[in-house]
From TrEMBL:
Any Pfam family: RRM_1
Organism: Trapa natans (Water chestnut)
SUPFAM superfamilies linked to this entry: RNA-binding domain, RBD
InterPro entries: Euk_RNA-bind_prot (IPR050502), Nucleotide-bd_a/b_plait_sf (IPR012677), RBD_domain_sf (IPR035979), RRM_dom (IPR000504)
Protein name: RRM domain-containing protein
Region Disordered, residue ranges: 258-281
UniProt key word S-adenosyl-L-methionine: no
A GO CC annotation given for this chain: chloroplast thylakoid membrane
Biased composition, class Basic and acidic residues, residue ranges: 258-268
Amino acid sequence: MVTALEAAFSVFPGSPLFRQRLLTLNPVTSLKLQFSPPSLSQSSIHFSPLLTCNGSGLSSFPPRFSVQDMALEADADAGETSEENVKRKLYVANLPWSLSVVDIKKLFGECGTVKDVEIIKQKDGRSKGFAFVTMASGQEAQDVVDKFDSHEVSGRIIRVDFARRFKRPSPNPPPPVPLAHKLYVSNLAWKARSNHLRELFSENFNPISSRVVFENASSRSAGYGFVSFATREEAEAALSALDGKELMGRPLRLKFSERNAIESSNEKEGEDGSSQVQPES
């Protein structure tokens, strides 16, 4: 006991009253001293509990300050702010080259307040076809995604999604794929070729491509093909006017194709612009 008191005097020097208080402790009272080595890390500084003397003996207060706790709170606040920004910022791809900041603000303004529009441009100042748009709230951003993702703007189907923590796409993204509205043309005469289809459809319309499909093994015409248009309206007009019209003595059967523009560009072409693909049901 005496040894413990001497150690206490050396660590906690105080007034004579404090020493007297320790010396008059009840003999059955046990004094437990615990020493912790100081931490040299600035990122985890803690103040030791305060040792006080009251009427009932020795007691301690819990630590009043922690740099580490404050750092954790600051990190949490920063994380919430970053997460909120992600919920408001959108990545918009496949934009028409001519679309301006004003045009985008007017378009997305139908869903709320547009805070910022950043069109990514090439070195010569021309648009790369994609942009970042920040809305005033997460709900407004969600409304934009729901309304405008896969929406047609000036002949292109734009893609709208939440920006993934402001991660930019690769410096040289692939050029936007032009939208093509294709008609599936069946019941073709065996001698019909792509140029025959183009001539027929070009009499009153402006097709951007025409293809006749050939069988892989025999290289003979499969009896069907595809004709593409820049707009759905023109494709609908051609379907209405030419469905059932005869070409080389056979009435054509027209319907909208289920294949998209990318699949069309990947088809294997044969002679006269013909293709080798599977028929549509």
